[in-house]
Amino acid sequence: MNAVFPFGFPTPTAFYLSLYVLTFVLHHVFMHYVLAGSLYVAWTTIWPGRDTLARAEQPLAATLRDWMPFLLSAAITVGVAPLLFIQIVYQDQFYTANLLLWWRWMVVVPVLIVAFYLLYLVKSKMLWNWPYPVRMAVTVGTSACFVFVGFCWTANSLLASSGQNWPDVYATGRLPFTTSAMISRMLIWIGGSFATMSAIVGWQLFYLQRRFERQQFSENAGPVADTRGSVPTLARLTGGGLVVALLAGIAYLAQCDAQSRSIVFGSLILPYILLAIVGTVVLGIGWTRQWRSRQFSFVGMMTVTTGVALNLIAAAVIREGLRLRAIDIGTLAQKHADAATVGGFGVFVVAAIIVSVLIAWCIRLVQTGLRA
User: Fold this and answer.
1) Is residue 350 classed exposed, middle or buried when 0-12, 13-18 and 19+ CB atoms within 10 A define those classes?
2) Non-local CB neighbours of 249 within 8 Å, separated by 6+ positions
3) At what angle do helices 11-46 and 132-160 cross, to 10 degrees?
4) Residue 286: count of CB within 10 angstroms of its CB
5) b/e for 195-216, b at 16 or more Cβ within 10 A?
6) Residue closest to 212 by CA, chosen among 231, 204, 288
7) Which of 42, 70, 124 is nearest to 364 (CA)?
8) What predicted TM-score, i.e. pTM, was given to this entire model?
9) What is the DSSP string of 30-55?
10) What is the pLDDT of residues 340-367, one digit of tens each?
């Protein structure tokens, strides 16, 4: 592991690692929107503010409520690809972690199903006519579902990297990592999700503002048309989320062993840490530019999007670099080579293109409906 990721590995291993990271990033783009969005909607429900229009009814929260069901569907759809590639890359480690997690892993799908229907309830006007305690319980419960799913996947990753502890986990059922390590990993993920969510919903509000300015909305759309007040909120959410992720990352790294820290600051991962720093600076420039003008702009949102993309790629590689430290990936090289001889990659590419086109078409249909 003396070369920059993904170089230094056999070609099949590098190929599958790269595909896994890229598809994992794409999945997280959509999942971050739903996680951070549900947390923000829950917060606006608990603390509605003192403005004439409650926070939950303002453009930011209203847009999140409208789009989260669709974005969860997109996250699940694009999540199939990294789920397939992780089984090829890590094989026994991934399957063993699934089995040892037992009930925690078995309830992931039921919890996601419940969360999916709760998102539609949050989107409906019916919920917002119900008493405050009910609204709070539904929105908090929805966000808690996604946090729990994140806990299961984080536990899976940590457990897959703890092969020496598997016999004890099997015998006792206790997970082999500390609560502080789990919380740190979770906060990295949750904090970073706000930057991604802010970038996506920023684009949505940018185009919403443009359509409003061109008088393409009906008269009854007025309360959600002025989006400029959301700029400072999204900038603060991004900055606060990145600070939380940074502090959690430092806390987690402090709990790692010396070998893990040497990997982080070694040639495999260090360039991606620098990439994350660049991404954060670019992200800050994009939001600062828009905060000063108090409105969304195309250049500003492109800058923000670039920064988010760099951060997501860097975070994914750092995450996998730590796992590669704990797993002797060289022992799986032959299995990766065997997998590369099996046909089907062309089918994957065609399916990926079809799914991408269908998702884009669905988004276009929604945009067309909003104009009506």
Assistant:
1) exposed
2) 184, 188
3) 160
4) 25
5) bbbbbbbbbbbbbbbebbeeee
6) 204
7) 70
8) 0.88
9) HHHHHHHHHHHHHHHHH---SSSS-G
10) 887 677 777 788 788 788 878 887 776 6
